[in-house]
Amino acid sequence: MQRRAAQHPQRLPAALAALGAEVVGCRSCPRLVAHRERVARERRRAFRDWEYWGRPLTGFGDPAARLVVIGLAPAAHGGNRTGRIFTGDRSGDWLYATLHRFGFANQPTSTRRDDGLRLIDAWVTAAVRCAPPDNKPTPAEFSNCRPFLVREFQLLRRMHVAVALGRSAFDAFWAARQACGHAVPRPRPQFAHANVYPLPEVTLIGSYHPSQRNTQTGMLTQAMFDQVFASARQLLQA
After folding, report:
1. CA 194 to CA 208: how far, in whole Å?
2. How many separate domains does the chain show?
3. Does the pLDDT value for residue 130 go beyond 90?
4. How far apart are CA 109 and CA 105, in angstroms?
5. Is 26 left (phi over 0), alpha (psi -120 to 50) or beta?
């Protein structure tokens, strides 16, 4: 059996660690609790020897990050299995390899919580912290999870660039930003891949999600994904 290791190899300030403990203990959404725990019990045949995490996931990375990457939610047999966001699935393969290529990670792979991965000036999180059925959280589930993202934004005081992976993460960014007390442009900007949205104190970049469906159909190519993180790197160097 795989043993549960510490989810964060990087030392966290007390406030972020406390938020993480609150996230992991959350049972606010009965549908998500039932789904994540059922998946953890039944497991996929290829992962029968794993002890699934089966709980909500915290953000992961460098607490002094200037880059924050926002995804949708954990994958049932990815993060819900390994206990770390974007770890153990194809989307994570794309994300962390790209972060490594642009100097935001110490290695290009992310397979388990204790694999030695460290993020550099980057933090990865999600709009919803539990694996949802069919990868589709309900509006109420987004709303229940929003305070966690709001508090991350407040605690990640050096955030300068945010990358939203997909339209749902894009929407979650605006909702969390408004909940933090910041004005949201009217009309609100529309989501588009590689679009850059300059705001006071932070710049948002939209990106298609590196889901298997998007990458296999060519809706998102490696060159397109690289364009997003090249823009993020340029903004941080400016």
Report:
1. 8
2. 1
3. yes
4. 9
5. beta
